[in-house]
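Action item from last week, closing it out:
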Amino acid sequence: MTYLVTGAAGFVGMYVAKQLLEAGETVFGIDCLTDYYDVSLKEERLKELDKFEKFSFEKIDIADQAELSASLADKRIEYVIHLAAQAGVRYSLQNPHSYIQSNLVGFLNILEYCRHNPDLKHLLYASSSSVYGGNKELPYSVSQSVDKPVSLYAATKKSNELMAHSYSHLYRFPSTGLRFFTVYGPWGRPDMAYWMFTESMLAGKPIKIFNNGDMKRDFTYIDDIVSGIMKLVKAIPEDGGEGHPPYAVYNIGNNRPEPLMELVDILEKSLGVKAELELLPMQKGDVKETYADIEPLRKAVGYEPVTRLQTGIPKFVDWYREYFERT
């Protein structure tokens, strides 16, 4: 079978593509390699995938419909795993147009491709826990209203879910959205707190702690995210007829909110460095706590995260040291 993985040079995209390739599947990866963060990291991820004979890659901007269509014209893609997006809550305050192009125009182009692809069996795409906005009811459940986003990034991800629903309703192709909760681990993103804290602590610089440290996140290790995706790819939503399109949305998280200062404590122990704290107020677009209700995903595919923060962060630190010694 042939899989299209968009955002293949990204953090989650690389891991998903690698897992598929290790299982003997054929993977076509696309990515536009934006400079949102260090492009060399994305290129190094691609080198990990280039080791596999059944991997091919093209540098493509999904917001360019003509380029995307031309690239996919001769491919027989059965499964689309759409992970390409402009990520980051805080960056959406600085560069909102990039979110519209990638997350809305780009996603529309992916939906149009799926609509016209006779070989398609399932579209699985990345949403985000950010869609819950300032929701105070914990844990976050997919049955809750998510109509009050507090960042443009969140608004684009909620829009993706609505767009996918409309296409699944109109054209009856199966789609599944995944609301990721604070994914971390080796090969991760430099804009995430655990990476920025590590970088600053090793450089002897203070780390920025928002809301004076009174925050919690449902930190989810990358291996647990990938295991959920692998289970869901073949768990294709059924077409229930009028009013019940072949459409699903799930939370995928660790089901365990951890205090931000617990992350700092684990990093201090892993790095052997005492953190200097710069306490700051809450930043616009941010939320105090995230907490995933994963019961629907458990029932659907038996999903169960197994990696605690105390285990995952040291693995990241080991990788970080090795990566920067090598590069």
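Closing note: The longest helix spans residues 96-115.
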